[in-house]
Amino acid sequence: MKIFTKSALVALLVVFCSFSVQAQKISLQRVDPPSWWVGMHDPHLQLLVFGHEISKTQPVINYPGVVLESVTHVESPDYLFLNLIIKKDAQPGTMEIHFKEGKKDKAVYAYALNKRNLNPKLHDGFNNSDVIYLLMPDRFSNGDPSNDNMPGMLEQANRKDPNGRHGGDIQGIINHLQYIKDLGATTIWPTPLMEDNMPRTSYHGYAITDYYKVDPRYGTNQLYKKMVEDAHKMGLKVIQDMVVNHCGTDYFWKNDLPTHDWYNQWPKFTRSNFHGSVVSDPHASKSDYKQMVGGWFDTSMADLNQNNPLVANYLIQNSIWWVEYAGLDGIRQDTYPYSYKKFLAHWMERLLEEYPHIKVVGETWFDQPATVAYWQQNKRNYDGYQSHLTNAMDFPLCFAMRQAFNEPNGWTTGLARLYDVLAQDFVYSHPDHLLVFADNHDMTRLFTDLKGNLNSWKMTMAFLLTTRGIPEIYYGDEILMKGDKADGDGVTRKDFPGGWAGDSLNAFTPQGRTVEQNDAFNFLRTILNWRKTNKAVQFGKLTQYIVEDGVYVYFRAYKGQKVMVMINNNKEAKTVDMSRFADDLKGFTKGKSVTTSEVINQLNSITIPAYSPLIVELEK
Ligand code: CA
Q: What CATH number has the domain bearing residue 429?
């Protein structure tokens, strides 16, 4: 067999392509995934090929190390699914796929098989030493006004509309990586950056219309990859927000589904009942379950049927494609219990097979710890379900935080809520692996919920960043941004002041923040940067003492290192007799306040001001 040089091969391809244009009766509109890699753990690759009556052709591949094992035909004549094996000895290069009718090529596709980036530091996941900064790309910063409106995109930028597109983008994130790093977060989680070409409220990005393409209003795939690389150079990690439950109803296949069951179909539009606990409920009715998982999230979001193995493969390969392409550290998976749970377990297995250290956090939005626990990796469930999900979200603790600092202390109210939620940690296989948060993009802003009370906000943040779990903060928390969900989602996702050229204030700088905002920002930055250095607060065993007299005290201990946190949720200062905590104070004689650097010379009795947290690094 003749060996072509690279340039000869390119020339040959040009000849092939131009030939195929002349003779071609079929134009290939899509091949997904658009590229792949040699040397993946799993040798299988399933290509979705879309083109008018492509199923009438016979695909042929002659590429060393690649076997076209079988071809799957579906109901629509416009699709073929090619089942390939990429053997270990396959080399990177351009693989031609010939779609033949008899001896004639009806189409030729040049498919890229790339070389993997085998840097061992990639895909290492996040852990308890990390703090995640959640941001909405459309609302964080507009680094490139030239992409605010792009040809072919249905929704135009309109900053005056709270639910419209505002023009924020990937360049805006890149421009502020240093800001996030200085604040003390270690990991960024941007809400989805994939194309969402729906006509309305597309800024949130959860109605994806192309799983393989960054929305051009955010930038390009290449720029996204650069953002991850830039973040890595600065020691920051990146989590990609993914959505396998549904796609935007305007996805390319909308008028020509490969199979009728590609979506969960109903005689008339049927929403999910949004009651996620149905999925793990031993007493659930079949109809409730069917509607929970098979109902649509929204008219703009088509519910994908992952029980169809072709759909499942499409989604799994897409997730792997992004991890490999962009070099991701982790994934956040949207609306977790809304996808079929058998598929979710398989999706996780496939990801962990390729990337054993990657971390995936599922949006497990439940009120009760037991329901969250059902979804956690290694949980022993009554029905034998094993999710393999490495990280779940601690919504119960979030809800407890929002009440705890917002009401008087009682036997089961105020601070007791925090104690009581954590007291249920026995239901979790790994309580430390929970993502803990007080705010996110789907809720009334924390500072609004706390009635604009800075003391309550400081107590919340101090607790969030010192309790067990991996903390997440929501962009704008650090400058006390407000917004009530009752006024619409857009209001809880306002533009970060200073993110747009011409903004009257730039809250990315101290000069652009009010005195109160700087107080909050500095408080948060101090704790976050200290947190980076303290193993006890990251990984330490938690011991909590029952709340007495409106004061909550707990310790984090790690190999002789110990942190004590005291929270006084009273309108007056409290002097606390410390003898109750003797077990944990044993061996320590003094300490230092993390937020004020004040030295505490004795541990017999400590006075805490009204509505305040005190974080103490204990010393011998
Ligand atoms: Ca822009």
A: 3.20.20.80
